[in-house]
Each structure stands twice: as structure tokens, then as C-alpha cells.
Design brief:
Two copies of one chain form a homodimer. Chain A is α/β, with parallel strands linked by helices. Chain A has a domain at 8-36 and 97-201: Rossmann fold (3-Layer(aba) Sandwich), CATH 3.40.50.300. In chain A, 47% of the residues lie in helices and 21% in strands. The first copy, chain A, has helices at 19-29, 59-67, 86-94, 105-114, 128-138, 143-158, 172-187, 190-201; strands at 8-12, 33-35, 38-40, 54-56, 71-77, 80-85, 98-102, 119-124, 165-168. Chain A has a five-stranded parallel β-sheet with strand order 2-7-1-8-9, with helices on both faces. A four-stranded mixed β-sheet of chain A has the order 4-3-6-5. In chain A, helix 1 packs across helix 7 (172-187). Chain A is globular and about 55 Å long. The relative contact order of chain A is 0.21. The A-B interface holds A 1, 121-122, 124, 127-128, 154, 157-158, 160-161, 163-168, 177-178, 180-182, 184-186, 188-190, 193-194, 196-197, 200-201 and B 1, 121-122, 124, 127-128, 154, 157-158, 160-161, 163-168, 177-178, 180-182, 184-186, 188-190, 193-194, 196-197, 200-201.
Chain lengths: 202, 202
């Protein structure tokens, strides 16, 4: 069991839903869960570390990665490009490490199309008003950007049907517990474990 | 979410796999998980409490329950009848309580046929030799009964394919964590949660 392939967990949800916090809490508990670092053309926000939070790349470099088929998915979001480098994800899964991708819906659907075994989790705040409140409390963005994000969020909601699991982030610890549970439960699925069983009995 | 219907979790596995211990640990952690008390015609073992561990009934009473369609499933096992009274299970699920059934494979398949939403979990020891060791260490049964149980266990193994999840009980705390995670993850499934989402957005 210990040597089975890692799980790929795709987490999406409206901006401000608390994805980073929840994923961070899961990784605190599980050494076998790693976060996939996305490449992006957007500017670093204060406190973000290059190579840890994002791989910050120039537009030209990003285009080159697309052309060389080095991205598992990519998308434009609020005027910037975001993408997931394929090689580190596949290498980690092969080693038995579980990989969490924090990507928006458009990219998530690309991942699912390429890797149908991906586990799709949609993370949402308890209600839309709380989302708006969080975006404003974050106080990092202009009113125009906030409205843009809210409109994007509305579109994301309607796409939740593509996701297997929905985690409601009313309390980040409970949400982390749920996300963690999804990873554990998925690794208990019969298809993954039956071969060990058969070996024992036949 | 709090008012959603409870989950029915069916746990099977070879005798001596540690089902009672693992289920007990889950219930220590979760107040919203209840154990379904089976009816049986077998004699109480020392330490077993009537109405708590089992509902001990006479053969005639058991037959009456079958005839009155009061059992969700029933089966003969090592010479005794075991069954699950339907009414308390359905009442608990309606209240949003998760119900765990600890039943052997034959009965479990009856439950799945009647209630396809049942979550099927197969609990096994890490290998067959450990199962044999545990049965002997328990030291409660004759050699003949042990051999009978081992033969039944071999048949149960081959039926694992009917189960959605397999939990390997090498360590009871890890196994309880896995069983608990399966319950949590299943309550995060989109089908259960999407209606709340739609209400928020449309």
C-alpha cells in the first residue's frame, strides 16, 4: 500500500474562499501531501515567495512552456496567465506523493481531461456574501478587480457540477479535515487496494 | 448540510479482523456516528451486553421478524442467525445520524441491494496469518470453530470486489482514521451538497 501511486487532487473555488489556508492546514498534517507550484505571469503580491507560492515567469517564457507542451493546464485569469508544469507533478505521483493543485475551474477541467484519475474538489465559502466580505477585508485589490473576481466566482459556481466533492469552508479546520479525509478515503478505494488482497488469498 | 440525510456504512471483513475495535474508535470521535445493533440467535459471549452489543433473541422470534419483513438483512453464520432490524436504521438516517452496520458479506450484499446508497467498506488484517493468530489469541473458541471461521474468511476475501473501500487494519488507530475519513468524504460528495450551492447562486 505504501508504494501505491500518489493521488492528484484538484482544488478549485472562488477567489477568497480560503483555498490556500485550507490546503496549508492539510499539508501541516500530512507529510505525503505536496502542493503543486503554479507558474504565473502575474506580479508577486507582498509576502509571496518565488518558487514556493508561485513560479513567477515572464509572458515570453510562459508562451514557450505552452509551445513545448510543458504545462498540464493553463488559463488566463484576471488578466494574467497561470499554468501547472507537468513534469514535477508526474514525478511526485510516481513516488507515491499526493499532489494538490490549486487552480481555477477552466484549468481544472483541462487536468481532468488529461488525467481522469484526478480527484476534483470544489471549495466554497458558506455563502456568497461572505466571499465578498473576504475579498474586501483582504484589502489588496481595487474595487474594479473585486467586481471582476465576484463575476468570475459566479461563473465558477455554475461549474461545480464537474467536481466530485464540495467542501464548504465555514471553518478552515473543518474544511481541512474534510479535504484530508477525501485524500485518505480515495486511497482506500478498492481498485487501488484489491491487488494486495488477491495476492494474500489466492 | 447539517440536516442532510445520514450515511449508511456497511463494514464487513473476516472474523478477527478487528471490526469492533475500529468501529468503536470511530464512534469515540464522532457523536453523529451510531452503531446498528444486530439481532442474533447466538448465545451471549462473556462481557457482551444485551441490547448494546446484540439484541439476543430466540429462534422463533427471529423467524417472526423475517416473516414480518422487519429485517434489512439476515444470514446464518457459524450456526446462528444474525440480522439487522430495519426501523431503527431508517429512523436514524432520517435524523441525519450516520449508521455503521457490522455484518458479514452475505448480509452486506442484501443491504446494498435494498439500499444502493450504502457505503461498502471491507476491513481486513494485513495478512491472513495475522487473522489466524488473532483468532487463536482470542482463545474463546474451539479449534473446530476457528477452522470454520478461517474457511468463511477465505470465502469473504473473494467477495471483496463488491466493496467500494478496503481498510487494512494493521494499526487500529490508522484503520479508524481511514473509516472515519470515508464517512467524512462521502458526506462531501457533490450530489449531496450541490443543492445548497445552487440555492446560493441562482
Amino acid at each position: 500500500m505504501q508504494n501505491s501511486r500518489g493521488k492528484l487532487i484538484v482544488v478549485s473555488g472562488p477567489s477568497g474562499a480560503g483555498k490556500s489556508t485550507v490546503i496549508g492546514k492539510v499539508m501541516e498534517r500530512r507529510s505525503d501531501v505536496r502542493f503543486s507550484v503554479s507558474a504565473t505571469t502575474r506580479q508577486p503580491r507582498s509576502g509571496e515567495a518565488a518558487g514556493k507560492d508561485y513560479l513567477f515567469v515572464e509572458q515570453g517564457e510562459f508562451i514557450r512552456m505552452i509551445e513545448n507542451d510543458e504545462l498540464l493546464e493553463y488559463a488566463e485569469y484576471v488578466g494574467s496567465l497561470y499554468g501547472t508544469p507537468t513534469a514535477p507533478v508526474k514525478a511526485a505521483l510516481d513516488e507515491g506523493v499526493n499532489i494538490i493543485l490549486d487552480i481555477e475551474v477552466q484549468g481544472a477541467l483541462q487536468v481532468k481531461a488529461h488525467m481522469p484519475e484526478a480527484i476534483m474538489v470544489f471549495l466554497i465559502p458558506p455563502n456568497f456574501f461572505q466571499l465578498e466580505e473576504r475579498l474586501r477585508c483582504r484589502n489588496k485589490d481595487s474595487e474594479e478587480k473585486i467586481l471582476g473576481r465576484l463575476e468570475t466566482a459566479r461563473r465558477e459556481y455554475s461549474k461545480a457540477a464537474a467536481y466530485e466533492y464540495i467542501v464548504v469552508n465555514g471553518d478552515a479546520d473543518i474544511a481541512a479535515d474534510e479535504l484530508y479525509s477525501i485524500i485518505v478515503a480515495e486511497s482506500c478505494r478498492r481498485e487501488d487496494r484489491l491487488k494486495h488482497l488477491i495476492t494474500d488469498t489466492e
